[in-house]
Backbone:
């Protein structure tokens, strides 16, 4: 049974679906956590950061998460490579977007790559200045901030307009990716029928919309705050 | 009506193909697309040129033989019809129309617009049946089947095996075709007996023949001449995964 | 030398004939079946079901079809349903009643014993198809539903929406796939049989052309089964599929198989009329439309002219100016008269000049009264898909304006003569389904074609073929390196080279179209001595022209559709003449064959049972030589022949 996850198209899709589902859950959690940064002076947020600091369960979580991303990413490339091969060498001279077909659904890899690039940027902005610093046993990052002061890091990062733009592009790509991905993972495990397909698509829009808004609002609010120099 | 046709010409499977332009004129708007090609071909024969080879047979939308990719659409611009049910009134007078064969690695071109869809037969041979011998069967009314189940089975059984799903899919996936057969039999008690075996065998054959992986774009459903829903793909996924987890 | 026809009809009571026969014929042991090869040509309901059943039994089967997949055979296009004497509706149906309706519907020109057997096995077909997973329509209680069809007073037609033929064929095709998977059947798609090989008077194999590579192949077998359907495309325009042809059957005829009743052609009354001169194919609109549609033409010629000019719409013509001619002529049955009667009546009105479109070859099928009576929703529910299809094809909305319809060639009752075992006059050569002449007499009832194809393939041939093969268990594998194969292959290659070398000025389609017009005008719905004699002369002349002036482009060793069409047309050009000769010989009117000289005072078909109660079996005597007629007398022991009456 183990091998059908690699040698069967439906098995490979199952891996995409399960790893994708896991990442969606993580995103929901991360988004919820971010929203906390909007509350009060940031101490609540820092408390969560502290809780998720350099301890064993956070490390295991991070490792699993990284594995999930890696599997999702690797399978995506593998499937795409196979799919291009299945398509053949000669392409259609004229192509169209078929009625009722989302643009995103045909460009999941492109969107995924944008998401990954955004992720790398995000890791250099945050993870390398927080968890990594702690792991190295240091007490301040190169910005002079304490690795446990996530709120300050957010404030700093989103005071730069270009960061805000980059993050919004990233969130938008994520939004489109999830718009298709969320209902698609239900379809792949077979949890869909004619009644539930429209419902699942609706749920996918809600979930992806929520994630987009949750992340975007933090970036925008902190940028707005930086503009009015803390007076509001 | 007058049209300019850009048609894919390819001598045989081993030759390199190219588009050639043809003009057809004085076409009645009531002419079907394939009749328009018949007219073009008759002209070509008179000129001593080889006519354009294309698959077609019943011209009633049921045999699944016709298979043209017209202006970017499998089976042309209308929804839920086969190529033979496309009429010239659906095009603008003077339009340039691009006609291509199915493009999919599993459907190699035989000549011009004709492709080899033998892979679909092979998938069905792998398990797209109920293993009953002639005469070794109970009375037709021995197994009552809820009307809704019979209707759903029929929805899937409407598949004509034309290949538009794999030809349209950007991944060259045959999932809608495979799902239609698996789902149609899965909805009936007669088909349930070997449901697990069928789903595994057909998916394995589909993979072996080099069809791509389904990414749920829904393009197949949009271009399917019989409007078969991707909900059947979900059922195939369910059948297959359940079978695998039972192993 | 005329045929010595032995129909091999078993003696005894009608209801016991098949049982007695099965008990009397030989069977082949499993060990011996493995040594025997059978070729099946054609993969429609007959061919696919036969090949699957024979494969299950253990024979080595090779199956051939011209399409890219066995599933494309034209059986797939049948819409309405399949008859069976299940009596699930408790309306007093029985095997005898189905038998009687079929015999009567065929205007008493079919064999009693064959038809009774057909009715007998009809029930098994339904059971078989259900078990295969054919999604027949069901009632709320989960049991099988039925509907009514023409020519019967009981409700015995099983159906799967308007796609019954498709679903039954997919069932047979699935059974075939199972056997291909098991290795007992080998499938040859895109292969066309071009000749039958006869050695020592027995069928020993076929010559086939690989339609992709053009290669000519030899295939040997201990028996050959022809299941290649009908030859309606001799008319060029018909409801048959584009590639449907009579060539396989015709090669058998040429090699000595008798061809029976070639003139019996069914012309279906409700097809979409021809438009222009460049149409390639006609579309059938289901017979069921006549349940609610009323057929009419205008009474006044000025209205006809206004319609043609487009100055009047059909809906502008007042009720009193409409001639509902079927209701006028046949008050008892009205618009629901049988197919042949409805077709001839439409022709009569159009011949009189009342045809309602620019070609003068169309009548109206109007739903106005039904929509007023039942409401648009009810009509939409009943016929929605057909109305949509009509609108798609004609761009006219049938909810607002009446449909235009005209009769078109649909089915051929005639075919290769077979005995009770379905064997032709050539030992080892069998013919099943529409390809044989068997069970429908001079007119086929709706929903009976599917029944016959599957009856022959699943439940008759697998038994009867054993009777012949039992004599072959000692026979070695058939060698294809024999003079007979050499000769047949050479003849095929010569014919192909001849066609390619003519390089004349007329395309195959041009000539086929002309043949179609000759056939339609002279050997169509109404035939006369003069028209048939004219047809024979004209077809012979056209055949000469074909062999002098046809232009076939392309090469022999490639995918060449023009060559395929030319080979088929060459046979149609002879078959058309044979049909005309048969029609000329049959000086009576019966079923689909209407000789204008033989009608009652009211213009109805007039049979002459004293002279023509026989199947006319023709024997090939060479090119441009008149074929020889042998008669198989049709003995009616169990039914009384009566003249059909639909007036009162």
Residues:
């Amino acid at each position: 049974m183990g091998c059908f996850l690699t040698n069967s198209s439906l098995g490979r899709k199952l891996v995409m679906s399960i790893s994708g589902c896991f990442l969606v859950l993580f995103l929901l959690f991360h988004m919820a956590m971010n929203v906390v940064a909007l509350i009060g002076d940031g101490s609540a947020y820092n408390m969560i950061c502290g809780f998720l600091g350099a301890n064993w369960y956070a490390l295991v979580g991070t490792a699993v998460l990284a594995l999930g991303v890696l599997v999702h990413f690797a399978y995506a490339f593998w499937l795409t490579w196979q799919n291009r091969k299945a398509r053949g060498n000669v392409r259609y001279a004229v192509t169209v977007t078929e009625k009722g077909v989302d643009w995103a659904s045909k460009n999941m890899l492109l969107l995924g790559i944008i998401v990954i690039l955004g992720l790398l940027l995000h890791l250099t902005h945050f993870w390398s200045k927080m968890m990594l610093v702690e792991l190295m046993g240091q007490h301040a990052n190169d910005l002079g901030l304490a690795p446990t002061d996530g709120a300050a890091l957010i404030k700093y990062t989103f005071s730069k307009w270009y960061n805000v733009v980059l993050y919004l592009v990233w969130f938008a790509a994520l939004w489109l990716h999830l718009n298709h991905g969320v209902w698609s993972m239900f379809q792949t495990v077979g949890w869909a029928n004619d009644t539930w397909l429209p419902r699942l698509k609706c749920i996918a829009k809600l979930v992806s919309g929520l994630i987009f808004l949750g992340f975007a609002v933090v970036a925008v609010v902190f940028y707005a705050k930086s503009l009015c120099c803390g007076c509001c | 009506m007058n049209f300019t046709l850009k048609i894919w010409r390819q001598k045989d499977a081993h030759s390199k193909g190219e588009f050639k332009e043809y003009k057809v004129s004085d076409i009645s708007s009531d002419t079907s697309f394939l009749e328009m090609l018949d007219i073009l071909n008759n002209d070509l024969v008179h000129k001593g040129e080889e006519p354009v080879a294309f698959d077609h047979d019943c011209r009633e939308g049921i045999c699944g033989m016709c298979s043209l990719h017209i202006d970017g659409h499998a089976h042309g611009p209308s929804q839920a019809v086969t190529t033979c049910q496309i009429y010239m009134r659906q095009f603008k007078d003077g339009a340039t129309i691009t006609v291509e064969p199915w493009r999919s690695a599993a459907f190699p071109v035989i000549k011009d617009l004709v492709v080899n869809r033998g892979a679909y037969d092979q998938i069905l041979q792998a398990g797209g049946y109920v293993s009953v011998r002639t005469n070794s069967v109970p009375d037709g009314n021995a197994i009552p089947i809820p009307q809704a189940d019979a209707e759903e089975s029929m929805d899937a059984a409407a598949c004509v095996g034309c290949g538009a799903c794999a030809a349209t899919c950007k991944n060259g996936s045959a999932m809608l075709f495979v799902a239609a057969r698996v789902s149609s039999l899965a909805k009936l008690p007669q088909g349930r007996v070997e449901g697990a075996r069928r789903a595994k065998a057909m998916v394995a054959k589909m993979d072996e023949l080099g069809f791509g992986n389904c990414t749920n774009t829904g393009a197949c459903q949009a271009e399917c001449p019989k409007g078969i829903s991707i909900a059947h793909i979900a059922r195939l996924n369910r059948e297959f995964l359940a079978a695998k987890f039972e192993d | 030398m005329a045929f010595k026809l032995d129909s091999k009809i078993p003696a005894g009571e009608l209801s016991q004939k098949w049982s007695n026969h099965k008990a009397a014929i030989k069977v082949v042991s499993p060990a011996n079946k493995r040594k025997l090869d059978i070729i099946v040509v054609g993969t429609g309901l007959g061919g696919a079901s036969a090949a699957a059943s024979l494969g299950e039994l253990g024979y080595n089967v090779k199956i051939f079809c011209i399409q890219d997949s066995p599933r494309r055979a034209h059986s797939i296009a049948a819409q309405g349903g399949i008859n069976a004497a299940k009596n699930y509706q408790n309306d007093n149906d029985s095997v005898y009643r189905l038998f009687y309706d079929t015999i009567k519907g065929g205007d008493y020109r079919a064999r009693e014993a064959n038809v009774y057997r057909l009715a007998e096995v009809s029930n098994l077909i339904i059971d078989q198809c259900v078990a295969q997973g054919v999604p027949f329509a069901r009632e709320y209680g989960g049991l099988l539903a039925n509907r009514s069809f023409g020519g019967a007073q009981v409700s015995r037609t099983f159906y799967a929406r308007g796609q019954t033929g498709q679903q039954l064929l997919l069932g047979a095709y699935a059974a075939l796939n199972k056997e291909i998977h098991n290795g007992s059947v080998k499938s040859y798609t895109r292969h066309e049989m071009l000749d039958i090989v006869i050695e020592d008077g027995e069928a020993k194999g076929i010559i086939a052309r690989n339609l992709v590579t053009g290669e000519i192949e030899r295939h040997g077998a201990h028996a050959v089964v022809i299941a290649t359907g009908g030859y309606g495309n001799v008319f060029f325009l018909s409801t048959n599929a584009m590639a449907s042809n009579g060539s396989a059957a015709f090669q058998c005829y040429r090699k000595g198989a008798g061809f029976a009743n070639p003139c019996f052609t069914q012309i279906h009354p409700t097809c979409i009329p021809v438009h222009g001169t460049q149409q390639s194919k006609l579309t059938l609109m289901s017979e069921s439309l006549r349940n609610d549609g009323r057929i009419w033409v205008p009474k006044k010629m000025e209205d006809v002219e206004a319609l043609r000019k487009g100055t009047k719409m059909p809906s502008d013509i007042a009720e009193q100016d409409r001639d509902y001619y079927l209701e006028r002529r046949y008050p008892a049955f009205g618009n629901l008269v049988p197919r042949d009667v409805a077709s001839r009546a439409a022709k009569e009105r159009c011949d009189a000049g009342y045809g309602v479109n620019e070609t003068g070859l169309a009548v109206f099928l109007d739903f106005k009264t039904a929509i007023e009576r039942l409401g648009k929703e009810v009509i939409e529910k009943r016929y929605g898909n057909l109305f949509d299809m009509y609108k798609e094809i004609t761009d006219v909305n049938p909810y607002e304006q009446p449909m235009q319809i005209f009769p078109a060639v649909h089915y051929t009752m005639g075919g290769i003569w077979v005995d009770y075992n379905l064997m032709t006059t050539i030992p080892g050569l069998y013919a099943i389904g529409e390809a044989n002449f068997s069970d429908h007499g001079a007119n086929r009832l709706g929903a009976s074609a599917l029944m016959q194809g599957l009856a022959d393939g699943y439940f008759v041939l697998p038994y009867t073929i054993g009777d012949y093969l039992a004599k072959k268990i000692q026979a070695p594998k058939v060698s294809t390196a024999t003079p007979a194969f050499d000769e047949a292959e050479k003849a095929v290659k010569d014919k192909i080279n001849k066609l390619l070398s003519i390089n004349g000025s007329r395309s195959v389609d041009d000539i086929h179209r002309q043949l179609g017009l000759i056939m339609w005008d002279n050997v169509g719905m109404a035939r006369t001595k003069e028209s048939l004699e004219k047809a024979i002369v004209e077809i012979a002349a056209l055949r000469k022209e074909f062999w002098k002036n046809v232009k076939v482009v392309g090469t022999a060793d490639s995918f060449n559709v023009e060559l395929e069409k030319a080979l088929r047309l060459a046979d149609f050009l002879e078959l058309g003449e044979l049909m005309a000769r048969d029609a000329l010989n049959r000086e009576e009117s019966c079923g689909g064959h209407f000789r204008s000289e033989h009608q009652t005072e009211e213009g109805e078909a007039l049979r002459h049972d004293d002279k023509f109660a026989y199947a006319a079996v023709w024997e090939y005597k060479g090119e441009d030589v008149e074929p020889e007629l042998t008669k198989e007398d049709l003995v009616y022991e169990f039914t009384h022949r009566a003249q059909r009456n639909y007036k009162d």
User: Anything to note?
Assistant: Chain C touches chain B through 83 residues (CB under 8 Å).
